[in-house]
Design a protein that fits this description.
The structure holds two protein chains of two kinds. By secondary structure, chain A is of the alpha/beta class. Chain A has helices at 17-27, 60-70, 72-77, 80-90, 114-126, 146-165, 169-184, and strands at residues 6-11, 31-36, 41-43, 52-54, 108-111, 134-140, 188-194. In chain A, the strands form two sheets. In chain A, strands 2-1-5-6-7 form a five-stranded mixed β-sheet, sandwiched between helices. Chain A has a two-stranded antiparallel sheet with strand order 3-4. By secondary structure, chain B is mainly alpha-helical. The relative contact order of chain B is 0.03. The chains are: A alpha/beta, B mainly alpha. The interface between A and B is large, with 49 and 46 residues. Chain B: It comes from Musa troglodytarum.
Amino acid sequence: MGAKVRYAMVCSSNQNRSMEAHALLKRHGFDVSSYGTGAHVKLPGPSLREPNVYDFGTPYKLMHDELRRKDPDLYKRNGILPMLKRNLGVKNAPQRWQDNAADGCFDVVVTFEEKVFNIVIEDLSNRKQVLIRSVLIINLEVKDNHEEAATGGKLALELCQEIESADCWEDAIDDIVAAFERQHKRKLLYTISFY
Amino acid sequence: MISDIGSKHIELLPEMVPCLIAFLKDETPAVARQAITTGTSLFGYVLEKLVIQGLYSSEIDDSTKSSWAWMLKFKDAVLHIAVQSGSDGVRLLAVKFVETLVLLYTPDPYISADPPQEPVYGLGFNISWLRGGHPSLNVGELAMEASQSLGLLLDHLRSPQVKSLSNSIIIVLIKSLSAIAMKRPSFYGRILPVLLGLDPAISIVKGVEVPGAHHALKTAFVACLECTHSSAEPWRARLVEALKAINDSELVGQATNKNSGGVSISNEESLPLKDDNSSMQACDEASSDLVRKRPLAELNNDLLQDDSFSGKRIRQSTHTVQDLPNEPLQVTADQESNSVPVVGSVSSKDKSSGPVQQLVAMFGALVAQGEKAAGSLEILISSISSDLLAEVVMANMQHLPPTCPKTDKDDVASETGYSSCLASSVLPSIQSSPLISDIHSLSSLSPLLASLLNIQPSMSHDVAKSHQSSEEKATDTVETTLLSSSVGDGSAMMPVTLPASVSPFPVVTENGSSAVSLSLNSATEERVIPGVDSPSSIDEIQESHDASHSSNPEVNDSSQDHATSLGSLVPSNVLSTCSMATDVSETQSTGVGIFDTSQASSTASLVTSCQYVLPKMMILDVNLTDEAKDQLQKVAFVRILDAYRQVAISGGLDAHCSLLAHLGIEFPLELDSWGLLQKHVLSDYMDHEGHELTLRILYRLYRETEQDQDFLSSRTAISIYETFLLAVAESLRDTFPATDKSLGRLLAEVPYLSEGVLKLLEGLCCPDRSEKHEKDFQSGDRVTQGLSAVWNLILLRPSSRARCLLIALQSAVHSAEEVRMKAIRLVANKLFPMPGISQKIEEFAHDKLHSVIDDVPAIEDMDADESTSGLQEDSKLGKPSSSRGQQSDNALKSSTHLDQNVMSSLISEAQRCMSLYFALCTKKRSLLREIFTIYKNISKAAKEAVHRQIPILVRTVGSSPELLAIISDPPTGSEDLLMQVLHTLTDGIVPSQDLISSVKKLYHSRMKDADVLIPVLPFLTKDEIFPIFPHLVNLPIEKFQGALSRVLQGSPKTGPCLTPAEVLIAIHGIDPVKDGMPLKKVIDACSACFEQRKVFTQQVLAKVLNQLVEQIPLPLLFMRTVLQAIVIFPSLVDFVMEILLRLISKQIWKYPKLWVGFLKCVTQTMPQSFSVVLQLPAAQLENALNKHPVLRPPLVEHASQPNIRSSLPRSTQVVLGLVQDLQASSQGQTSQSQAADTGSSTADVATELTQESSAVS
């Protein structure tokens, strides 16, 4: 591959799973972005019915400060504050996948939930496909909690490294996926769309 | 780059395209790909330009023409690539190119077929514009070509080619084709058969690796289904089938992965499903018949949009009427998301929601086509399994506009509006009570009702009670509408029960029911609507109705609205068992009808949990402040809890449990429903009902955590779950006696164990010291309780096994001995035999054992330092203690005296770490060796601990082969321990022959230390003992004494192996020189024997002396022994004299050493010895008298006695000076000879002395 492969990590809120992977891949020198597909960015609140809802684009810093003001104990304990802190070191604010047309084409999109996977595929197929640039979309099912996100991030990194090392992922993807599934006993779902 | 230039300067294309074509063959995939990408966009561009130019002018300029020609060449090249096998990356794009080509070449039905008036570039075009004629392009030809290209793609997916394709190609092909199919529905007929045929082919070929292709296929099918174009319709049924197949296979996969949690619920779920099945099939057809009779337009309106639409509409209208953004939204959202069950969603349903939803959509679409689709509808119905069909129906019901039985409860004493509201929160049950009485009479009509009634009686029972308890007089206006419609040929009776209780809004009710009846009129031929009015205070109701009616016209509107939609939906949705309920509760004080959405959810949850296939309540709500709502909910909740007790008595617990659990979930957190629930659970735990309830709640929560991918809700649910579980567990611990099994049972059955609970368990198993003091009296039982719970968990919960094991193990090294022993019993007896975990236990014990090496000495050193600083003497004693063995034991004792506390704590610390390992040794003897191996490395405290413990262990193990192996080949440094083991083994029991031979082997091969033999000495034979006797004597005196007693004692069976006499003789038989040991040792050994006067009695000594005196040569110590014997037993003197006499006859003076002893002896035994002395030859006599001058005077006196003197030889008398001068010459002669004798004897002495000194040295 001539140009550098561009990666996108996508989960629903662009907070936990995608950011974990984003941070990790970034550290490993990948050209990576991350997105959420939800309508809003939701963070756990004091109760089930009182989530903290933000719009995409709200800086992590702002959320961090606000939550710290609200209940530093609670949010530290449930790992939200550390997560936000991590996030604000990676990028400014959560971004929404559906609004990312301006960010250009990605070569590989990793999603962490089948719902998100489907949304991404649908979104891509709804866009005008003028560039005829193929994009690989892989779903790696990761539960939305801190521990799983950490494992998921590592797996995503490994997967991306595999893809990166391939000469041409279109040729190698079947083998990569099969090898990955064998090694980690995790099912991958992938598809190919076009920009 | 090229594409940019190309699009701007079309005249350059003829030069660029050849280049592109060349690039296509480039080795590097990236180059080829870029070429295709560029080519594709250029192709579209040129074509567009060509078309538009041709449209508006009959002439096309040359450059465009030549560009087009080149583009066509390019196209051919790419088509070639698409067919060939090559780099997947390139092929993907080639396929994409073909897709574009097909799309370009075929008319787009979605864009106007008429060309725009003005030539506009870049906005897309439609090939159908060309129909009007084009100078160079022909629509028909292009269509042909498109069709051919499509065929190309399709061929790929037909087997057997498909087998050679990679997954990615397959996915792209599928996606491309489905895109074509959607955009050009006219190709449906060609594409879908291939896609449909693909599914099995793929699964066969690729086996496991197809999820990607599968998924693409599914997406494609769903997308095709969504397509509304007319030519798509014939394919729907088949698509549905295929989808179903795909989903089925997925479901199977999921089912295997499915957690077993929530089983109880899903079991219950299956019941109503089956109930419905029987009638469902027929109903379905009937309904479709009904539908067909309705005007198509209306159906399109209602059904095309899916049923949820109408429901949504009502929601939204309700939403506008009322100012409650949160809750209605939530419900709406639920509908929108199409998740089948709103509150009581069940795992099995969750999974199937996908296919079911699709099927629902399908039905909707099919029905929408009316007669046309009847055929396919039938096919569809017959092809779907009855289970699935039932689910479809049920899913549809979810989308029903909730028409609810309207009950008004006018609380007579109601001063606040809340109480009536809360009454209605128990509504479903309350409602059903009057309902049942009504329905009951009609139940024979309805087989389905029967199943409903099974559950309801208990409910009504409960309700009745709660009524009484709250002393409320409820006025219920109930109208039960029972629709019994028989459809078809009449053989199938379709009972449609529609129990609807009517609210005090007659208008509303009228609207609703009339609408219902209207719509039903249009649909059904026969219908019965019996209305049953229960006695009520009509006036009051009327009054309140008026008030609310005037204030709430919108309510009516919406009900009307929804009633109509109900009408339209009833037939289409096969409402064989639809009881609809509208709840309008009215508050007099405010004059406003209050509908609480949260109640809606609660009632709905009850409905679902009770497994009635009931729609949600349609509930209207009017302004309530948040606090008021909270208050309401709370009160309602408490009421339900109270009612629970009655329910418990009357049965019907199941429903109630579920209700409470669901409520807990639904309630906002700050209301502390958990706190209430918790209290309740505990108060009820005694009856074992609390357990059930707790479990349900926990499982409910667990599902919440598991199913919700949503970060926030799963987090929250987790935290609630953990808090709740912990709280219940804690209070169980604190409220019940330790013998109670509830806690263990709870922990064994909850969905999963949180860290908190495990900590609690840990606390039970490993109580802190402080805690222990608090409730000392029961801590032991607590530990037992905790441990048995842990054991249970280890057995029943493989997932928590490691953690629980750790708890047990920690407990097994607990500092309190009581705790430790209990835990060790558990671990060693119960857990260790379990194959899966024995390894872990062993490792743990091993680590702990080794930790003794590292930890305990460290502490000890520290202590040593302390004592050095404290007492100088201490350290002096302490230093040599570092050497091993007996000495160190002594030192140990001394230092123990000094700081006993430190020492004992060290010992117990060592013991703490080691007991587990010791316990394991009894189970697995091969572990024994390790103890011996580390023994030399551990501190004295640890050694002490080992010494304390090993006897128990050894006694348990006995002389097993493993132990014997160790004995015969012990690790170096473990001698002390080995000794103890031997002692233990031989203590009080007869050692096995194996043991003895092992010991002997050890003695001969490894340790020449006779020490090891001591324990088995009694069991050796005389012949075996004699050779080793010198070694025994050579031992430190204490040990020799031990050995001596053993030898003398012997084994119980065989008796003493040596008699005391034999022992003494053996001792005397030792030759210090030959046996290489100091004489002193032998002397000490003798002394040791003499000390035991009870054993070595006078007789024994006499016997010994008797035998010894016969030996030649005489034993070195003989005279010494004689002397000792006299000292100890003075009465032996006479016997000794005899001995002495015999010595004289043996010429004792020839043994210089013995001679010394002899003389000493005679000196001591004066006067008895005189007679002996006088027997000496004169020369020896003189020698003796010279050496012991004290002898002379009494001897002379003795000899002077006449009778004695007469018997004395003359020479003797001369020596004694009794005969003077007379025989001087003879005397001189004798003295000369005597001198010669003495001379030689002195020489002897000298040699002997040198010998002795050399021996000594």
